[in-house]
């Protein structure tokens, strides 16, 4: 099968960028795969970038020429914004090529993609009144908010890009249900779990400390985690990652007297693996509707249980004894969860987490599921 993967790489690389490269590697052994990509860091903020987001005729022709030359059976799009804009949708429409979109965030209805602003979950724009992204602090600047709000409105109501999508792949049931609630036909929705490599041998024995792994930003609930660590008596903990609230969190940890909480900053994959080798549990106390973070999958594959909030797709991963789920923002409940992560209890939950990962989160399972999505669309096209 000939598969074209399309993606706008972010200015600051994250899990989505890493997944796209992993998907490319995963499919290349058995399929003819090419990557159509742009780098957002190559764009200069201003009118030209805004035009690219809304729709550039010359860029669309360039994307269309790439598709004509490669002749894919299916196109799989990840992040279109801002560098690709609507070009992939429109070129696939023109050429009659089935289009698959993986939904990594909520940008189909929310300009900033998080359904979260000003410290709380927000659904103001989902009905179509995208001016809220300008009126509220959804972006670093109002100009950026206006660009994304107007772009999304045009793509949704004028260009009607959603009609060009043949299948939406969602990494969690929560996101699938959210899209269905927005009126996207259920026949177009399919949940395909993300994947991770499994270490050859499961970890023996428990770890020494709790770990947070991810971006340091307000929606991740790390301020709640610090309060819970204080309440739980300052157990050993490691925070891996960087982000816009890192300085604020470091100061909060000092103010709370958390002498056994260490901020390790951004680490390379080998360094992350070394930290996880000693982890007792992974904490993800998000206060927004988290999708399916790769950090959780990597922990489960190593036999590390999860301590998560009840938001988004997190409970799906930690359920059935694979971890502990607490109400988002509830310091007391999170502190109790930390205290409950004792050696024996954590080890038992970790074993369940690894078994789940070995059955549902492997590269083989992910590849098979994607191939099923692609084949179904190609067969329908051939019949038509």
Tell me briefly what this model is.
With 384 residues, the protein is of the alpha/beta class. It has 15 helices and 14 strands.
Descriptive overview:
43% of the residues lie in helices and 16% in strands. By secondary structure, the chain is α/β, with parallel strands linked by helices. The chain has a 6-stranded parallel β-sheet, with helices on both faces. The chain has a 6-stranded parallel β-sheet with strand order 11-10-9-12-13-14, sandwiched between helices. Strand 12, helix 11 (294-301) and strand 13 (306-309) form a beta-alpha-beta unit. The longest helix is centred in the last third of the chain and has 21 residues, at 363-383. The model has no long low-confidence stretch (mean pLDDT 93).
Task: Provide the fold topology.
Layout lengths: L1 E8 L5 H14 L3 E8 L7 H8 L2 H14 L3 E4 L9 H9 L3 E4 L13 E2 L2 E2 L10 H4 L6 H17 L8 E4 L2 H9 L7 E3 L17 E5 L8 H10 L5 E4 L5 H10 L5 E5 L3 H8 L2 E6 L9 H8 L4 E4 L4 H5 L4 E4 L4 H10 L2 H18 L2 H21 L1
Parallel strand pairs: 1-2, 1-3, 3-4, 4-7, 7-8, 9-10, 9-12, 10-11, 12-13, 13-14
Antiparallel strand pairs: 5-6
- Give the N-to-C terminal Cα separation: 18 Å
Helix content: 40-55%
* Main sheet properties: 6 strands, parallel
**Tally of helical runs:** 15
Radius of gyration: 21 Å
The run of helices and strands is EHEHHEHEEEHHEHEEHEHEHEHEHEHHH
Question: Care to count the β-strands?
Answer: 14
């Amino acid at each position: 099968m000939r598969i074209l993967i399309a993606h706008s790489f972010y200015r600051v690389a994250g899990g989505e960028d890493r997944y796209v490269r992993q998907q490319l590697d995963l499919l290349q052994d058995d399929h003819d795969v090419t990557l159509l990509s742009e780098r957002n860091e190559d764009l200069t903020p201003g009118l030209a970038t805004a035009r690219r987001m809304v729709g550039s005729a010359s860029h669309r022709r360039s994307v269309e020429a790439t598709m004509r030359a490669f002749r894919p059976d299916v196109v799989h799009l990840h992040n279109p914004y801002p560098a690709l804009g609507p070009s992939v949708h429109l070129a696939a429409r023109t050429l009659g090529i089935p289009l698959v979109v993986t939904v990594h965030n909520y940008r189909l209805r929310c300009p900033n993609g998080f359904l979260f602003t000003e410290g709380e979950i927000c659904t103001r724009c989902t009905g179509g009144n995208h001016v809220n992204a300008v009126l509220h602090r959804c972006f670093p600047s109002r100009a950026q908010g206006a660009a994304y709000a107007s772009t999304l409105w045009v793509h949704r109501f004028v260009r009607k890009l959603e009609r060009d999508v043949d299948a939406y792949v969602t990494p969690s049931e929560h996101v699938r249900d959210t899209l269905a609630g927005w009126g996207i036909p259920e026949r177009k929705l399919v949940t395909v779990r993300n994947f991770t490599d499994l270490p050859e041998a499961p970890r023996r024995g428990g770890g020494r400390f709790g770990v947070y792994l991810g971006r340091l930003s307000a929606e991740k609930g790390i301020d709640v985690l610090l309060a819970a660590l204080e309440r739980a008596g300052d157990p050993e903990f490691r925070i891996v990652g960087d982000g816009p609230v890192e300085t604020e969190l470091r100061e909060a940890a000092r103010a709370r007297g958390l002498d056994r909480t260490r901020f390790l900053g951004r680490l390379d994959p080998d360094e992350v693996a070394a930290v996880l080798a000693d982890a007792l549990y992974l904490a993800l106390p998000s206060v927004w509707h988290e999708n399916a973070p790769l950090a959780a999958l990597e922990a489960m594959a190593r036999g590390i249980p999860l301590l998560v909030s009840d938001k988004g797709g997190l409970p799906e991963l930690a359920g059935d004894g694979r971890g502990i789920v607490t109400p988002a923002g509830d310091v007391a409940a999170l502190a109790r969860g930390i205290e409950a992560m004792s050696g024996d209890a954590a080890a038992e939950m970790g074993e369940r987490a690894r078994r789940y990962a070995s059955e549902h989160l492997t590269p083989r399972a992910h590849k098979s599921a994607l191939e099923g999505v692609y084949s179904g669309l190609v067969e329908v096209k051939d019949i038509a």
